[in-house]
Amino acid sequence: MRTSGSRQPRPDQIDPHRMRHMSLETRQILTEDGIASVLVNDSESPLAWLARRKGRDGRSLIAPHQLIAGEKLRADFTRGNMAPRVTANWGAPTGGRPRGSGLSPGEMTDAMLASRQKVGHALDACGPEFAGLLMDVCCFLRGLEDVERERSWPPRSAKVVLQLGLDRLARHYGFAGEAKGGPANVRTWLAEDATFEV
Q: What is the DSSP code string of the chain?
């Protein structure tokens, strides 16, 4: 739940039963109009849950740069109005356009188009191996168990694949992560004084 401006509800205005299932935090975000204070439900995002949860080694299940990259993808997805509509749009005209076609180019703003392009570029940079998983977890907020069940993956394997995908996504966005290992040494079977010839 992300709201801003005058429509932002206060925690005391939310139904108490619903409130028990939420983890509300106030955050500052940068918008087109400047910095805005928003109320965020951390329990809606699988990435936020993974970032709060600790593994056996005491570290978070995903690193901060992975969380930021995933949330950036989600923000662009949301700004691009890419989520499928699940309710009727009673304000839309009924003629002139086939059903289910989404917004026409005339109805899209420049910001929406730019956000859609950013999502496309990010998923292309991650490759087809990770794009579907990143969309499911970061954008559609699907849990890792659901992803594993749907794809017939072994239990707890989606976390590892997600970490790899988030690393690639973070690299695309230019977020620095921890360097794993040092530079690779090239090993050859050549004698010390031999050289390669092409």
A: -EE-GGGPPPGGGS-HHHHTT--EEEEEEEETTEEEEEEEEGGG-HHHHHHHSB-TTSSBSS-HHHHHHHHHHHHHHHHTT-SPP-S--TTS-SSSS-TT----TTT--HHHHHHHHHHHHHHHHH-HHHHHHHIIIIIS---HHHHHHHHTPPTTHHHHHHHHHHHHHHHHHT------S-PPPP---S-TT-----
